[in-house]
Amino acid sequence: MYEFEYHQPKSLEEATKLFADADDPQFMAGGQTIIPVMKQRLAMPSDIIDLGKISDLQGISVDGGALTIGAMTHHNEVAGSDEVRKAIPALAELASHIGDPAVRNRGTIGGSIANNDPAADYPAALVALGATVQTTSREIAAEDFFTAMFETALDEGEMIVNVTFPAPEKAAYEKFPNPASRYATTGVFVAKTGESVRVAVTGAGACVFRQIDFEKALLGDFSPSALDGLTVSTDGLNSDLHASAEYRANLISVLAKRAVKHAG
Amino acid sequence: MPVISLTVNGNPVTADVEPRWLLSRLLRDHLGLTGTHVGCDTSQCGACVIHVDGKPVKSCAMLAAQADGAQITTIEGLAQKGKLHPMQEAFRDNHALQCGFCTPGMVMMSVALATEQPDLDEPAVRKGLEGNLCRCTGYQNIINAVMVGAKAMRG
Amino acid sequence: MEKYGIGQPVRRKEDVRFLTGTGTYIDDIKPDNLIHAVVLRSPHAHAKILDLDTSEAETMPGVLCIVTGKDWVAEDFQPMPTKSAVNKKIDGTPLNQPPRHAIAIDRVRYVGEPVALIVAETLVQAQDAAEVVEVDYEELEAVTDQIKALEPGAPQIWDDIEGNFCIDFELGDKEGTGKAFETADHVVKLKLRNQCVTAAPIETRGAIASYDKDTGKYFLQNATQNVHANRDTFASVLKIPSEDLHHMAPDVGGGFGAKNSGYPEPSLLLYAAKKTDRPIKWIGDRNESFAADTHGRDQATTVEMALDKDGMFLGLRTRTVGNIGAYCWTVGPFTPTGGSARTQGGPYYIPAMHYTGIAAFTNTMPLDPYRGAGRPEGSFQIERIVELAARELGMDPVELRRKNLMPADSLPRKTPMGLDVDTGNFPEVFERTLKMSDRAGFAKRFEESARKGLRRGFAIAPYLECTGGGPKEFAGVKFGKDGSATLRVGSMSTGMGQETSMPQILSDTLGIDFEKITYVQGDTDATPIGGGHGGSRNMEVGGSAVLQCAREVLVKAKQLAAHLLNSNADDMELKESVFTDVKTDQNVSMADVVAASFDQSRLPDGMEAGALDTDTIFEREIISCPNGCHSAEVEVDPETGTVQVEHMWIVDDFGTIINPMLADGQVMGGVAQGLGQALMEEIVYDEDSGQLVTGSLMDYALPRADSMPKMEMAFYEDAPTAKNPLGVKGSGEAGCCGAPPAIVNAVLDALKEDGVTHIEMPLTPEKVWRAIQDAKQQGA
Ligand SMILES: Cc1cc2nc3c(=O)[nH]c(=O)nc-3n(C[C@H](O)[C@H](O)[C@H](O)COP(=O)(O)OP(=O)(O)OC[C@H]3O[C@@H](n4cnc5c(N)ncnc54)[C@H](O)[C@@H]3O)c2cc1C
Ligand code: FES
Ligand code: FES
Questions:
Q1: Cβ(A129)–Cβ(A191) under 8 Å?
Q2: B19 to chain A: which residues are within 8 Å by CB?
Q3: How far A34 CA lies from chain B's nearest CA (Å)?
Q4: Could you give the 3-state DSSP secondary structure of residue C174?
Q5: pLDDT, average across residues C375-391
Q6: Is the pLDDT score of A201 beyond 90?
Q7: pTM over 0.90
Q8: Rounded to the nearest 5°, which phi and psi values hold at C535?
Q9: Of A193, B42, C590, C688, whose Cβ has the fewest other Cβ atoms within 10 Å?
Q10: B67 and B95 together in one domain
Q11: Min distance A21 CA to chain C CA atoms (Å)
């Protein structure tokens, strides 16, 4: 690892200032992505600003039909939270399948979505549930938040504060894990809320995306068979060591059907 | 260099750490606790799992500086007064280790699983160990040991 | 009370150390004054080194020494020779063996080849300096696949070795086999691969080297499986006498063959240690483990079988091409040649067999033994062709196997491959496995799977092995006045528990307290010779040496006991640690005999104090033939291609079982590696660039707790071998022989209605899914 300065601010203001004053700073949440990356010398920030001690970033709360999760909330907290299990069980389920127990004890929702790994799980939930990302300067709709592979709408020094999820009527997430890394080779999150159905796909492309034709088909008939006969185009899908675009297209169909069934 | 204070296996420790030191490095190179092993660069193998404030974490994916104020338990802190922890005993009785390299992480993860899930069943053990790789045992004896150890921990 | 005799499941001594975090692995050792090294490795699969400039790196903070190919040339250091037992081509000329230096001289031939060793006060300083070493490469075309490497026009890896050809080899009766095929009613043919995999021990490789100016001696602590042979290799590289290198292995975190080899790094470290006059540590990281630990398997094979109209096997013909990488490593060329040849045909009675093996050079990390070293490949070849034959002939695969197994009364028998199979009962082992496998319940489980939209399949795979490794082993015992004993053995454990099982043999034979036995291994100064660990030889050769040593001690102890009791050695009987005169009933304890052995006044004429101390060398005449049978039941999700192995049943004939708990452990560990090969593991190089694609645990999948089936095991113990005094047959590699064919054939059984007849390993979800799609299309 290269040398860097380490800071542990106690407030968002302090963090923002530290960021502004440094050469090439980076925020650190759970460190489950950034530490392995720095360890392999693939990144060399001048300053690491650890967000772990900022109370504004913590906590899970429910307000009416909406669930708000602080950016620094660990995956295990989401998985085990009674509030989450009650409001959006599919989200708790998703969190319980990220990495492994040790990773879930450190990794955070803020870090996961800020990183926007194409194979990360949370982005599918945010997009399918129509979540809103609250940052230090604005609110961003999930769909506008994830812009490209490892890229988000966040500006330099802008921090994620929390994420708010409207509770759906029905929702489920199905993941096909990469046998080596445990990330999603492909993951499909399906959510039905009133008159809207959303199907968000992660792991298959450069960035999370919605499968619009599936959504249309499910709007009239929220059942697995509604997707029969629909094929997924391989355009824009990833091909790598573990899965070709064609195979991922198949996974999208299979996982979407399973998610719909699972959502009930 | 940040100065941090923490508790390691019940003993207070104060250390002058470089920001870039991993917690695994602090434990192994500076505190001489070499039971915590490092088996990979990408935080996949789990050989380095320890408890931070009672929870299992990968010490290769945490900075030493982040452990300021933490209560840390490593494999060396598990046996009490020369008596093996029930989980260690179960690993030995069930031949749940061969080369022993994955063992510290396995045992620490297993103790955490048994503590968090008192009604641990076999599928839960298999899932709970998803971040701990062993190349020697084929896992079956580890799974048996965790079931036995968990039972012994319940008393 | 625990019992410590042979056959007891004695809990392991070493476990307390490993379970409390007090083991001593290489990276746990920290000599005073320690400095650190990193290896700069080739980023290219094939390139000329036009220039290598270390001038800036040398000025970096903390840098003490940089070793490059220039030093190697200047010092005239020697290449590392291959020790392959097969070393002549079919035409009698020697194998093509290019020089394998510890460091690249002017050309690199695989990604990961050492180019420079950078030594600094701290690891970070060494890493920093490595980044500014400037190497000017001229890239050359690369080839990573052995079949392509042998094609005309392929990139030439060695200027003076035409066609990337290392060696060819044949065994068996070519003409007779040809005739069997001509007269056969059926001929079945299959092309298949045993893909390239790697051992991936959880502890990566590492070493600490130092040099003592005053004595002129080098000291190397090394995470290795074999201290003696590798000492000789490193000494020959550095042109020093072997005695000047003390080579020791601390606790080793798994090896499986990949820590057997004479690697480049230790020689570089030893040289740098002398230059800097400081102890130097190098610990490979996981990426280096994938790039620069020897690889395993990697054979592309055509296998053909001739059968008569009733399905009796008439002939087997195998032609395999092995990828041995860019160099002949320690014994690399042996694996696809002799290594796979001898157990061809497995436990079946096949009158005519012929085997051809070719080893080819490619731009990849070289091959060396990996758990089984050729035998798992052979076992997979025969079991796949048998399964296919059953399919093509419309016969029940169980029935086809049953009728072709070597009958019990055909043993002892020399197979057409020249393998002496002395004892065993293949039909009995097969039937026992089948009985354990709950075939009666299969139909119900099949229905249950079908209801969930899943397929279920079953297969059984008997295997025949022969154990390998060096034929000689040393054992020595030294007693203490307090009745303690130190047992030194030249074979080595890297996790298999010899620290427990070897003392078990000593304790059993001599009645000395198990707890008072100290075990020493992996130290060239403690034992004059040693074969290390490899080819499942530990118990067979090392254990036999311990038994031989114990028996020699016993002879002397009886004499001494007789002297103490004023009676005859012949009348002495040792039982529960006490010698009793069968005639007079007088007795003396073993502990007292040991004590007396240090008291000249109590010794008979001709015995000196310490008379019981004994060193011995055991030499086996001939290898043993472990065998057994695996069966597997699998569930396949046809929509995603995911395979879950649900259950495996295993019966092994390892002759005498010294410690059933440890033998079970060996089997299960082998099965996990076999399952890994069958379903998920593969070293992949990019075909065009020769880059290693699977360079981390993010890409190379290893089996986890939830990948593994329930395993039920039993031993067939009625056929101990007479080839060694213990009656043991090696157990370490069996799992890798049985599991891959059992699992792969079970998957194909599950997909038989889909029309799938073959899928190459590893059977990843995508490959399984694709095979189903392809079969659908063909059927349509
Ligand atoms: C072995 C292993 C397995 C894993 N498996 C999975 C998996 O299956 N699925 C999955 O989705 N993920 C997986 N992960 C990743 C894991 O979920 C990480 O926790 C996550 O990607 C990053 O979260 P973090 O809190 O650790 O962020 P960090 O690593 O601390 O930070 C990641 C990035 O986010 C930025 N950042 C962090 N917080 C904020 C904030 N509040 N505002 C703005 N920027 C911020 C940082 O600057 C950094 O660039 C795995 C990781 C490991 C090590
Ligand atoms: S060292 Fe492998 S997970 Fe920490
Ligand atoms: S015991 Fe060797 S890796 Fe688990």
A1: yes
A2: 3-6, 48
A3: 9
A4: helix
A5: 97
A6: yes
A7: yes
A8: 70, 30
A9: C688
A10: no
A11: 27
- Is C766's Cβ below 8 Å from some Cβ in A? yes
Give the rounded percent of residues in chain C with a pLDDT score beyond 90: 88
Secondary structure of A205-250 as H, E, C letters? ECCCEECHHHHHHHHHCCCHHHHCCCCCCCCCECCCCCCCHHHHHH
Task: Enumerate residue ranges in chain B where pLDDT < 50.
Answer: none
Q: Among B75, B95, B130, identify where a domain stops.
A: B75
In a domain, B49, yes or no: yes
> What does the pLDDT average to over A58-65?
94
- Give the tokens for residue C72: 């190697």
In order of their start, the domains of chain C are: 2-21+469-619 (3.30.365.10), 422-467+624-780 (3.30.365.10)
Quote the domain boundaries for residue B14: 3-75
pLDDT at C733: 86
Instruction: Please tell me whether residues A93 and A150 are part of one structural domain.
Output: yes
- Specify whether B19 is located in the same domain as B52: yes
SS3 content of chain C, % helix, strand, coil (to 5): 35, 25, 40
Print the domain residue range for A254.
170-263
Taking residues C593-618, report their average pLDDT.
Answer: 93
Residue A91 in contact with partner chain B when CB distance is under 8 A: no
Given a cut of 90, whether residue C593 has pLDDT beyond it is yes
* Strand order from edge to edge, sheet including A60-63: A60-63, A66-70, A160-166, A132-135, A139-141
- Alpha-carbon gap, residue C476 to C20, rounded angstroms: 30
B123 inside domain: yes
CA C225 to ligand 3 center in whole angstroms: 15
Residue C133: phi and psi, rounded to 5, are -70, 130
Between vectors from CA C168 to CA C729 and to CA C357, what angle results, nearest 5°? 50
Proportion of chain C above pLDDT 70, given as a percent: 99
The CB density around residue C136, as the number of other CB atoms within 10 Å, is 11
Strands (E), C308-380: 313-323, 352-360
At which of B75, B101, B116 does a domain end? B75
Which is more confidently placed, C529 or A205?
Answer: A205
**What mean pLDDT comes out for the span C712-737?**
90
- C199: pLDDT strictly greater than 80: yes
What number is the average pLDDT over the span C682-701?
97
Q: At C682, which amino acid appears?
A: E
Is there a single domain that holds both residue B69 and residue B90? no
Same domain, B71 and B135: no
CB C502 within 8 A of CB C519: yes
The tens digit of pLDDT for each residue in A175-195 reads: 999 999 999 999 999 999 988
Q: Same domain, yes or no, for A63 and A128?
A: yes
Confidence category of residue C1, pLDDT binned at 50, 70, 90: very low
Residues A155 and A175 in one domain: no
Neighbours of A167 (CB within 10 A): 17
Q: What is the pLDDT of residues A16-42, one digit of tens each?
A: 999 999 999 999 999 999 999 999 888
Q: What is the CATH number of the domain that holds B15?
A: 3.10.20.30
Write down the H helix ranges in C293-396. 340-341, 375-393
Find out whether A135 and A221 touch, Cβ atoms under 8 Å: no
pLDDT at residue A79 tops 60: yes
Question: Hey, are the CB atoms on B20 and A181 less than 8 Å from each other?
Answer: no
**B18 and B47 together in one domain:** yes
The CATH number of residue A74's host domain is: 3.30.465.10
Domain count for chain A: 3
Q: Quick one: A148 and A239 in the same domain?
A: no
In a domain, B81, yes or no: no
Query: Is pLDDT above 70 for C536?
Result: no
The two structure tokens encoding residue C323: 């990828």
Check if B107 has its Cβ closer than 6 Å to any atom of ligand 3: no
B 30-89 residues inside an 8 A Cβ radius of C: 33-42, 44-45, 47, 74-76, 78-79, 84, 88
Residues B131, B94 share a domain: yes
Written as one string, the DSSP assignment of A7-48 is E--SSHHHHHHHHHHSSSEEEESS-TTHHHHHHTTS---SEE
